[in-house]
Amino acid sequence: MDKLIEQLKRHEGVETHAYKCSSGKLTIGVGRNIDPEGGIGLAMEEIEYLLSNDILRCIKELSAEYPWFGQLDETRQEAIINIFLNLGATRFRLFKRALAAMEEGNYDEASTEFLDSRWAKQVGGRALELTDIIRSGEYV
Question: For residues 49 and 30, what is the distance between their CA atoms, to the nearest angstrom?
């Protein structure tokens, strides 16, 4: 099996981002056709695996950059992970007042600051739900 895997990588190439293959189909990895027109896409197990890895990456990045993150209760950590995953590290850093309020444990202020943003307008109900969780420390 190892020789087959190496051969397929050599023949198909290995791509970390989606690309158009020689027949114009949207493709990822080692020749995985994910094109909406006739592609096989991803299995639910693969989607869950990717999501789990993304969550772990977010936890590592948040823990490394924001010492206060590890002091949050699990529910507030999950709300912050959700926001971080949605925004990415660069855009998340722009929430300076919200992040300062989180560091101080002022969750009402943090919620207000997260809501007073273009992000909140873009994601609508998601922002309302997450800031309610940050404010209360409970899933709503």
Answer: 17
User: Helix and strand tally (H, E) in the chain?
Assistant: 8, 3
Residue 110, C-beta contacts closer than 8 angstroms, at least 6 positions apart: 98, 99, 101, 102, 131, 134
Number of Cβ within a 10 Å radius of residue 36: 8
Backbone angles phi and psi of 26, in degrees to 5: -70, 125
Decide: residue 45, CB within 10 A, 0-12 exposed, 13-18 middle, 19+ buried.
Answer: exposed
The mean per-residue pLDDT over the stretch 99-115 comes to 98
Do 128 and 119 meet the contact criterion of CB atoms below 8 Å apart? no
Reported as a single tens digit per residue, the pLDDT across 30-87 is: 999 999 999 999 999 999 999 999 999 999 999 999 999 999 999 999 999 999 999 9
Share of the chain above pLDDT 70, in %: 100
Residues 6+ apart with CB under 8 A from 67: none
Domains, the chain, ordered by start:
2-33 (no CATH), 68-136 (1.10.530.40)
Is residue 114 predicted with pLDDT exceeding 90?
A: yes
